[in-house]
Amino acid sequence: MSSTRLYINVDHVATVREARRTVEPDPVEAALLCQEAGADGITAHLREDRRHIQDHDVERLATSVQVLNLELATSADVVSLACRLRPYQATVVPERREEITTEGGLDLSRPHPKLRETIRRLEEVGSRVSLFIDPDLSTVDAAKDLGVPAIELHTGRYANSWRQGNTAVDELRRAARHAADMGLFVHAGHGLTYANVAPVAAIPEIEELNIGHSVVSRSIMVGMVAAVAEMRQAMKSGVRSQESGDGSRWSGVGK
């Protein structure tokens, strides 16, 4: 089994900075430390309201990190910036100004001309497009119909319920398998922590995890390099359990 890629989201380094509207901590400096620790890529979400990551952060990240995954909605100014900077990967997400963080996946149940146009523009400049969606089979089908190469499964339901049972992780496993069977690359993220990441990392079809808040929180205590290394270890524990056939991890998580 190949190793699952780990992308670190540095949004909340910028959240701390924006609390004082100053210049520190610097999310670009944090991103470089993540790379030093072995992160496979850096994720940043440029929101329409610019609540954390700013345009100048994305400009600097695009020229500083080896692999940038830019999260964005279909806001015209953000899409234009992405098309100019041409990040390796562009993950299209929904946004609502009143939400604290992204609360669900894209609604693909209805025609969405603006989304199609966003996908077209990003693909034209060479960015690899991924859609952030809920682990619902019909939504996976709709993403495939839009012609994107990749999806990111929203793990929020799992993050909120993993201590109560296996229903949500089973849902992720079904959606990941369904997507991979159709030729989609499968990523996952949202609410993943050191405590709950192992079962998701053990899903063989998921090739990439995007994790931010938990790693940034841990880095306050132990530093960014150590925090990334610890997350790598937490992910590997899930893969080892799967390879050894130890099914007890599903019922034993959280004990």
Description:
The chain has 12 helices and 8 strands. It is of the alpha/beta class. It has one domain: TIM Barrel (Alpha-Beta Barrel), CATH 3.20.20.70. Strands 1-2-3-4-5-6-7-8 form an 8-stranded parallel beta barrel, surrounded by 7 helices. Strand 4 (89-92), helix 5 and strand 5 (128-133) form a beta-alpha-beta unit. Helix 6 packs parallel to helix 8 (167-181) and helix 10 packs across helix 11. The protein starts with a strand and ends with a helix.
Q: Please count the helical segments.
A: 12
Distance between the termini: 27 Å
**N-to-C SSE string, H for helix and E for strand:** EHHEHEHEHEHEHHEHEHHH
CATH class: Alpha Beta
- What is the total domain count? 1
Largest sheet: 8 strands, parallel, barrel
State the fourth-level CATH superfamily. Answer: Aldolase class I
Structural class, by secondary structure, is alpha/beta
- Helical amount: 40-55%
CATH architecture: Alpha-Beta Barrel
Give unreliable regions as ranges: 246-255
Average pLDDT metric:
91
Backbone CA Rg: 17 Å
Arrangement of strands in the largest sheet: 1-2-3-4-5-6-7-8
Approximate shape: globular
| β-strand number | 8
Query: What is the third-level CATH name, the topology?
Result: TIM Barrel
β-strand amount: 15-25%
Summarize this, please?
The protein has 255 residues and is an alpha/beta fold. Helices cover 47% and strands 16% of the residues.
